[in-house]
Amino acid sequence: MDGAMSVIINGTTGISGVDGSASTPAVQGTDTNTGVFFGTDTVTIATGGTAAVTVDSGQRTKFPTTIGVGNATPSTSGSGISFPASQSASTDANTLDDYEEGTWTPGFAFGGNAVGVTYTAGNSGIYTKIGRVVTVIANVALTNKGSSTGNATITGLPFTAATGAEPNYSAVSFGNVSFLTFVEVPVGTVGGGETVIYLREITSAGGGTALTNADFDNQTQTRITVSYFVS
Q: DSSP states of 166-192 as a string?
């Protein structure tokens, strides 16, 4: 027939002479709008009449929306990479194997206890985890410091910190510190193998000492930010 497209099938070129499109792929299954079609130096997989994955001559792969790795279900909104709910850690230092965003609930403890401690409605925290590094932000705001005594910690970190020397590098940044009875500079470090931040003060003489319940008021409030390695 005049004007008809010639399709060649042989052992040298395979199937040639037809490019197809997203709605009518050159290679189809029983679903006629799902398959493979071709462009200039591109190969595209189409599903449901829409281009899903395209590979070009530079070996660049384009995904129009989201992809899931480790059997994770791709997100139905936005564009990006979805990771499994539970990390599948890689031993390769150059492999990104986790990303997560979420909330956590910070708290104060004294001597490891928090008897009678209560908080304002604004007591809350958020975090972002990329690989084995997590960054947390929180507002910790008391309405009653309770009756527990001893060294002060912030509890509730969303992931257990790595052990060894790594947590010692995780210095806490403080903001909007109020209603603390001491007058020196607050500092904090993440406890190795734990989910707590140990609180201290740096004195004008240059030394350091642990904060205790005696340094807190019933209205103590602080905002913190810290990044640390997870186990």
A: GGGG-BPEEEEEEEES--SEEEEEEPT
Say what the pTM is.
0.83
Q: Is there a domain that residue 122 lies in?
A: yes
Structural domains counted in the chain:
2
Per-residue CA distances from 36 to 42, 50, 206, 217 (Å): 11, 11, 69, 68
Structure tokens at 196: 């707590």
Instruction: List b or e across 160-176, with b for residues whose CB sees 16 or more CB atoms inside 10 angstroms.
Output: ebbeeebbeebebebee
The more confident residue out of 64 and 181 is 64
pLDDT of residue 185: 85
Residues 157, 207 within the same domain: yes
What is d(CA 95, CA 163) in angstroms, rounded to the nearest whole number? 21
The first and second tokens of residue 45, run together, are: 């997989």
More confident residue, 180 or 95: 95
In a shared domain, residues 210 and 113: yes
User: What is the predicted pLDDT for the residue at 166?
Assistant: 61
What range defines the domain where residue 55 resides? 8-62
Q: Report long-range pairs for 59-67 (Cβ below 8 Å, ≥24 apart).
A: none
CB 152 within 8 A of CB 109: yes
Cα-only R_g, the chain: 28
